[in-house]
């Protein structure tokens, strides 16, 4: 598929600021911006980052074509020399990012852009749009997959998604976070992920009766024969008719490999248990019972606790919109500006009355610290890029706000891994995105680095995200100096 | 821009059902599907329908290209003759729809598809995806615009939207429902709507100090000079520095046409009133105070009640995701099948334990009934297409559930208007979509046909949607007959 030109997918102020930098400053002044978020959606203890491949595609394809320039000229606020600059625009900076499918925590840079200020400013909106969306859906999906305790979750939300991209890239994020398939055929084609689905009520209604409709479906798709049982009366006609068709298939010698029913309404706990008994009694203990109908992680969890006889779940609206929390609050903040004389980065900080909203300055990276024995995450450490750590030394972690809360890690008890990896170097992409199904495998392993206490749906245990001693002092100093100058 | 091929933007089951129809039935059997919704989002009394232009583009461009066919072949579930059929696929049916920007109510067909069953089935998912998304955002926006009591609302949500389309087509829907502009440049280009925006905190932070940053901005954009005042200390430095710059502009003889400040944090009621006084006292009573920061209709309403001195509002996340209710529950249901011998439509009904979920059968349209004197909506009447009404006769309306609740309209006291208009005839588009800004004007007039009691944010007065006598009896008969056969 032809890549879409999303260059104008930006807020107008990025362009007005760009022209401002072009006019007022050294346009090549190199800066660092961090894209990070402050709160996990849904009270979760972690998020799953996703969307990097689409960010890469976006940056690779960044260019203002003639029609874009013509449109901008028509706005009457841009000068010809600036439009000429845009016409020749190409991203020339560096980008670092955390690979897709990684478990991430608040305040960690998910994407770090080091580029001339005009370029770094332009890409803000699209990077946030893409990362916010896919990370949101991946995080929501991980909760739903967790609630299903090993059962398969199918992504069925396309018709309720917020537009075509929300459906398609939402399906991508859902696959990354553990869905076993999606109903979205375009997502299947674009990302080479399994597509799933059987039939709708309209199939049943378009035949003279339910039994005829079931028979027609079974004849066509005997090897994946899931019959929708609730069009008229689930236990009164749907399940008995399905059993009759399965019996006819068996009598005709057709192998029953993957078959069963789907429930899309009613009391799923009660009906699934009754249906299970009917199917078992009729000699079909391996018939699958799948369910859909406005499911989310809480309903699935509750149905599991009630002993519902459902082992396959189609989840639509609540997954594809992340209904309880439909936005991921990623922001993009200036962290440093390079001094053109020394070539060193001068750290920048954004103040706020709210301590949590004060940004972390400087050129940073993230070290993830694992317990050597279990492989579980102990904490993340946001630090400066030039800091060196040695797992053979002891490591002192402390809470960046309540600094008296300290943890001491003895040498040899922990391992470290740097999360940010190079994506673009001098405008050239140096990273190859894995296939979605490979990211899915990686994401599964990532989630296994969390204790179940951090995965539970309500009030999970939070993972510490600390600052290195050096970063903490740099930040404290900047905060102090600000108060001196403002008084 | 090259139209995107969204043909595979569909659920897999649409294709498996299509193959089923192809194999098992007269593939040319003509059917009627209605796209409608059951509940207004956010407890609203109405919705604004939107997205029709994109539905038209989608249907016009429907075609399976070689790569699509190759992908489907690879799934191993479709036969060659069916793939051949898809390769030659072209939509050949009729579509009726309610024009974009119209006030609509639950259970009314927003889109009606009359087509061979295979075609009508295929388009289900994309039609719902598009209409659900844009109608959701238009409806949310109409609430926010209502809360602002005539102040301008700017759509600023792109970075938090659920992907590129959600940002771009969401901006389109927001403009339809009354926003005065969007920050999304791509939306501005695609839909010829005003784009708005000034600068971010990063602009301020990239200069040595706030005053220098303000001066640089004012120099560049003197005729639209809105300065972001909250980077360091809104009342302590932001507003005084802005005033200093405005004074410098005045002293230099630069006309202050559109200028002022933007507040993006803190207690907006308190700060805006203080800032207003400071601006007024300094001789800038016409300086605009605009605000952003996680606003929604309730916050704007509350700030208005508190007397906040804000007259321009930037609304992002909560608008572009419809945060309190991020999905519009549009569904697509079979309403009739043509008898191939008689050429007449046989009405079809979908039953449900929940009376509200029982569908309305038959080939229907909607008559909107207005009070002749005020032009306000009295009720909508869902009826069959061949029913005739005459405003010169009296009209009896009755509640379709509690049928003893009746309203009698005397001749000459009401007017009627049919809402569904032809969009496609025999596969050819017969409708020209108005420009977005024209739809916006129409939508404004549409909302004026509602009493304020139906527009208020909480517990609004609901408008009656009744069934015609003829449709009501057809439905009752179908319900009865179903119970006879199932017993």
TrEMBL record, chains A, B:
Superkingdom per UniProt: Bacteria
Modifications made to the protein after synthesis: Transiently phosphorylated on a His residue during the reaction cycle. Phosphorylation strongly increases the affinity for substrates and increases the rate of nicotinate D-ribonucleotide production. Dephosphorylation regenerates the low-affinity form of the enzyme, leading to product release.
Pfam family, one: NAPRTase
Record EC number: 6.3.4.21
A GO molecular-function descriptor: nicotinamide phosphoribosyltransferase activity
Function: Catalyzes the first step in the biosynthesis of NAD from nicotinic acid, the ATP-dependent synthesis of beta-nicotinate D-ribonucleotide from nicotinate and 5-phospho-D-ribose 1-phosphate.
Family that this chain belongs to: Belongs to the NAPRTase family.
Entry protein name: Nicotinate phosphoribosyltransferase
């Amino acid at each position: 598929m032809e890549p879409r030109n999303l260059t104008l997918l930006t807020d107008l102020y990025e362009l007005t600021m760009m022209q401002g930098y072009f006019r007022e400053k050294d346009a090549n002044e190199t800066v660092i911006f961090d894209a990070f978020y402050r709160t996990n959606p849904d009270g979760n203890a972690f998020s799953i980052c996703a969307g990097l491949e689409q960010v890469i595609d976006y940056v690779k394809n960044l260019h203002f074509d003639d029609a874009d320039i013509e449109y901008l000229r028509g706005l009457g606020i841009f000068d010809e020399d600036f439009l000429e600059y845009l016409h020749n625009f190409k991203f020339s900076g560096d980008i670092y990012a955390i690979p897709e499918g990684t478990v991430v925590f608040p305040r960690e840079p998910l994407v770090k852009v080091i580029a001339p200020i005009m370029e770094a400013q332009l890409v803000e909106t699209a990077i946030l749009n893409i990362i916010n969306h896919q990370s949101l859906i991946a995080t929501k999906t991980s909760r739903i997959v967790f609630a299903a305790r090993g059962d398969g979750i199918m992504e069925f939300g396309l018709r309720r998604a917020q537009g075509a991209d929300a459906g398609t890239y939402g399906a991508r994020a859902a696959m990354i976070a553990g869905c076993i398939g999606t109903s979205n055929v375009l997502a299947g084609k674009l990302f080479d992920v399994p597509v799933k689905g059987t039939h709708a009520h309209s199939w049943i209604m378009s035949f003279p009766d339910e039994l005829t409709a079931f028979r027609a479906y079974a004849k066509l798709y005997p090897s994946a024969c899931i019959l929708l049982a609730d069009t008229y009366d689930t236990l009164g006609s749907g399940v008995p008719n399905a059993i009759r068709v399965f019996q006819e298939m068996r009598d005709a010698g057709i192998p029953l490999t993957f078959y069963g029913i789907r429930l899309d309404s009613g009391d799923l706990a009660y009906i699934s248990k009754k249906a299970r008994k009917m199917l078992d009694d009729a000699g079909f203990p391996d018939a699958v019972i799948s369910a859909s109908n406005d499911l989310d992680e809480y309903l699935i969890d509750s149905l599991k606790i009630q002993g519902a006889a459902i082992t396959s779940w189609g989840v639509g609206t609540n997954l594809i919109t992340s209904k309880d929390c439909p936005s991921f609050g990623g922001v993009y903040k200036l962290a440093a500006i390079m001094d053109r004389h020394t070539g060193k980065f001068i750290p920048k900080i954004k103040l706020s009355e709210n301590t949590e909203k004060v940004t972390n300055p400087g050129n940073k990276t993230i070290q993830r610290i694992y317990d050597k024995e279990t492989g579980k995450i102990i904490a993340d450490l946001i630090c400066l890029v030039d800091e060196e750590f040695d797992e053979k030394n002891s490591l002192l972690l402390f809470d960046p706000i309540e600094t008296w809360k300290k943890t001491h890690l003895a040498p040899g008890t922990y391992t470290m891994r740097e999360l940010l990896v190079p994506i673009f170097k001098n405008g050239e992409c140096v990273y190859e995105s894995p296939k979605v199904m490979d990211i899915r495998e990686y994401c599964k392993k990532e989630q296994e680095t969390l204790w179940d206490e951090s995965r539970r749906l309500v009030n999970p245990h939070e993972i510490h995200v600390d600052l290195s001693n050096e970063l903490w002092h740099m930040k404290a100093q900047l905060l102090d100096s600000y108060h001196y100058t403002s008084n």
